[in-house]
Design goal:
Layout: H1 2-8, H2 16-27, H3 37-51, E1 65-71, E2 75-84, E3 87-97
């Protein structure tokens, strides 16, 4: 899920917990909140953070890659990452919703 990817790479994203608060509040079981401008702005900001360089690294084909996967009854996701001098960097994200038969 989108928020799963955000949480996984939180250490690479500045102020992620503050930015994501409106979306996390919506996810709470007893939440009565609805999607509003705060949630939309948070989603747009987080989307920009995970797709704007230097967050996504360029692959170095001389180094090993790591793939992280996650799945549930609703969907699957994956992250392609690689270790660089300053730590683990995401290279690509993938996710999709599962069909009923899957």
């Amino acid at each position: 899920s989108f928020m799963g990817s955000i949480n996984f790479f939180a250490k690479f994203l500045p102020n992620v917990n503050i930015i994501a608060k409106p979306l996390n509040d919506l996810r709470k079981k007893d939440s009565t909140m609805k999607w509003d401008t705060n949630a939309e702005n948070a989603w747009q900001h987080l989307r920009m953070l995970i797709t704007t360089p230097p967050v996504l690294a360029t692959p170095d084909f001389t180094k090993r890659f790591q793939v992280f996967t996650d799945g549930s009854k609703k969907g699957v996701s994956a992250i392609l990452a690689q270790h660089h001098q300053d730590g683990l960097k995401p290279i690509a994200f993938a996710s999709r919703k599962l069909t009923r038969s899957e």
